[in-house]
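Example for tutorial group B:
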């Protein structure tokens, strides 16, 4: 691992892509970004590539307008505006994940709210809101293709950790790459567990908002436990998680 903060962050970003692909939270689609460690108005994101294939050489730098910097002519992700607008409106956010993981999709298309059903999903707080692109922009291909659409999504996210996207997927954020990855992993897991609880047919009792806040603080304090495990499984090393 490099002592250079930028190199360390790129290393974590590569690991994040591999981890989320390995566990099926990302597949051939979806992406992970990180705010630049030296220039807070910039962010780092791979070129348009399946997450499992991302290497350090694939990472591009983007400006506040979500356009590539330094004359980089490689093809970027179409939905880079998700990341750029979240960073622009949320100075506390240092990493963003966009996923289409299957257990979450029904909650984005249903009146049933995704809520924290157990302590590992406590970052969901009082429940995830849903961004419906059609309400502002009419019928589209469902992709966030420009700054206005990204800004609308960031507004729906507000101060939360997760926002769902109707007919599409979800976005989760964190103050570090490991936290954003953790939240993406457990958004999928919480959705799966909640669906099973609903299928039992009885009353489902989510965490109280105060319970969720207390649990989230505890989980973030030990975030390196799962991060070290996940990273070792996909990268063969523990990393540092310093970003």
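The residue assignment follows.
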């Amino acid at each position: 691992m490099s002592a250079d903060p930028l190199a360390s962050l790129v290393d974590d970003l590569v690991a994040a892509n591999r981890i989320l692909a390995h566990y099926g939270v990302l597949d051939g689609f979806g992406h992970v970004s990180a705010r630049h460690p030296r220039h807070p108005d910039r962010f780092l994101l791979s070129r348009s590539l399946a997450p499992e294939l991302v290497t350090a050489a694939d990472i591009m730098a983007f400006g506040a307008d979500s356009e590539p910097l330094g004359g980089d002519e490689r093809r970027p992700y179409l939905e880079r505006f998700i990341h750029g607008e979240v960073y622009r409106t949320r100075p506390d956010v240092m990493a963003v994940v966009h996923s289409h993981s299957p257990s979450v999709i029904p909650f984005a298309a249903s009146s049933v709210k995704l809520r924290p059903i157990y302590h590992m999903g406590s970052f969901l707080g009082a429940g995830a809101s849903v961004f419906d692109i059609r309400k502002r922009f009419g019928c589209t291909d469902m992709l966030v293709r420009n700054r206005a659409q990204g800004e609308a999504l960031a507004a729906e996210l507000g101060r939360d950790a997760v926002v769902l996207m109707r007919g599409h997927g979800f976005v989760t954020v964190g103050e570090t790459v490991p936290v954003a990855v953790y939240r993406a992993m457990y958004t999928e897991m919480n959705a799966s567990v909640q669906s099973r609880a609903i299928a039992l047919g009885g009353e489902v009792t989510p965490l109280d908002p105060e319970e969720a806040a207390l649990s989230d603080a505890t989980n973030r304090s030990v975030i390196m436990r799962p991060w070290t495990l996940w990273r070792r499984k996909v990268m063969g090393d523990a990393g540092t998680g310093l970003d």
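The first helix runs from residue 5 to 22. Compare this with the pattern of hydrophobic and polar residues in the output above.
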